[in-house]
Amino acid sequence: MSNVVIIGTQWGDEGKGKIVDWLSEKAHLVVRFQGGHNAGHTLVVDKKIFKLSLLPSGIVRKNTIVLIGNGVVIDPFHLKKEIDELKKQNIKISPKNLIISDSAFLILPIHQVIDQLRENKKNTEKIGTTGRGIGPSYEDKVGRRGIRICDVFDKDNLFLKLSELYGFHNIWLRAMGEKNINPKEISEKLWDLGQILKPYVQPSWLLIDKYKKNSSNILFEGAQGTFLDVDHGTYPFVTSSNTIASQAGIGAGLGPTDIDYTLGITKAYTTRVGSGPFPTEDKGDNGISLGKKGNEFGTVTGRQRRCGWFDSVLVKQAVSLSSINGIALTKLDVLDGFKEIKICTGYSLDGNIINYLPSSEKQQKNLIPIYETIKGWEGSIVGIKSINELPKSAIIYIRKIEELVGCPVILVSTSPERSDTIYIKDPFSSN
Ligand code: GDP
Ligand code: IMO
Ligand code: MG
């Protein structure tokens, strides 16, 4: 048995969903442990496309159980919609294969109103959030006034808790010239929806404990990426949760010694959606070309993703922050046809060379990337399933990445399709 954590090593959208789905074949349980429906994962299985935001990517596998852990913030109305949409695609979802932690916090409509109002009224640079209420919901959790799934099943108490929460936020809404929001309607809707969701709800740590004792393989699916982490990312241009590997324990209910392997998902170049520092961003022809070839449009908001060359400084930092054991390199095929490929190996800052991302927002914005250039390859690598079939330059590129970030590449993805994956080492049998 083995427990594997999967996390993004850049700014999200590294292709985590595809890799989680691919590895799910070996997992008995797949667990989401942070974030909410700000995440967007696209899976392609035999040309059929599945889009997931809140449900763990293992859900499309017949024999895999999935769990939404306590660290996730859940918009229950969105969850219901996502379940219904997947059922229309013939995916079977029932309390037998989907479990929701009873202590996960809710995203309420008022959180979305606040998220969007704040962004619209911001005088300084906008964060560029997904507008889905992620930040305000996590704030209420830490502020000790949040509503958890288990609160929804006690009708009177639910209304009292909602009244306190809405009372708190109505002060700010009035100050911003907005109308008060009355919690009565939402209280009733939540109660009704709660009755539908109740059979899915359990204490998540207890279920994980059972799987641990049964020597099962558990796959922990991170959302977002390392540099969107609220502590370690490009603050304040981050999401409101911890996205690094240690969060798997907190957001699901297990200790660090139960994690056997951490797999970092790394795109063969870099993208970012929303505002914030991005040292290797390329607004010229190469960036446009990466965006077009990589179809870099957000799954959740449809926004165009910003693109640039691979930044080894960032990924090396991610390897350290999450003690990453191996890397799954995705979207290597997007580099097909580039005559030259650049890799950022360090930064210049105020005349000095540095090889880490500084914490100061101002310094992050002033970094000038230092590049090494390698030769590209001719022809297409789309669909290649064996490392030996890759062109020599592609292998040189992979080896260069391994050397710079100090971690082996154990999987390579060569198209969105599940089966188009080069397998080098199995993270579940690493010991
Ligand atoms: P996630 O948020 O990390 O799960 O990533 P997304 O699903 O938001 O974005 C990754 C996109 O790239 C999706 O549209 C995938 O279908 C696609 N994708 C994943 N792996 C590959 C790959 O190796 N090659 C190409 N061309 N596309 C890929
Ligand atoms: P996946 O799981 C890429 C970004 C938003 C914004 C910032 C804060 O698909 O990789 P939020 O709504 O979380 O308060 O927005 O974080 N962001 C993502 N960017 N992929 C994601 O998830 C993201 N989830 C949030 O664009 O810049
Ligand atoms: Mg995504």
Can you tell me about this structure?
The termini are close together. The mean pLDDT is 96. α3 (109-121) packs across α4 (134-142) and α5 packs across α6. This protein has two domains: 3-102 and 203-429, Adenylosuccinate Synthetase, Chain A, domain 1 (3-Layer(aba) Sandwich), CATH 3.40.440.10; 105-199, Adenylosuccinate Synthetase, subunit A, domain 2 (Orthogonal Bundle), CATH 1.10.300. The protein is built from twelve helices and 20 strands. It has helices spanning 16-23, 76-88, 109-121, 134-142, 155-175, 184-197, 204-213, 247-252, 285-293, 312-321, 361-366, 392-405; strands at residues 3-8, 29-32, 41-45, 48-52, 65-68, 73-74, 98-101, 105-106, 201-202, 218-221, 261-267, 270-272, 306-308, 310-311, 326-330, 340-349, 352-354, 368-375, 409-413, 421-423. It has a ten-stranded mixed beta sheet with strand order 9-7-5-2-10-1-11-15-19-20, sandwiched between helices. Strands 14, 16, 17 and 18 form a four-stranded mixed beta sheet that branches. With 431 residues, the chain is of the alpha/beta class. A hairpin with a 2-residue loop joins β16 (340-349) and β17 (352-354). Bound molecules: guanosine-5'-diphosphate, 6-O-phosphoryl inosine monophosphate (IMO) and magnesium ion (MG). 6-O-phosphoryl inosine monophosphate (IMO) is lined by residues 8, 11-13, 38-41, 127-130, 132, 134-135, 223-225, 228, 239-240, 273-274.
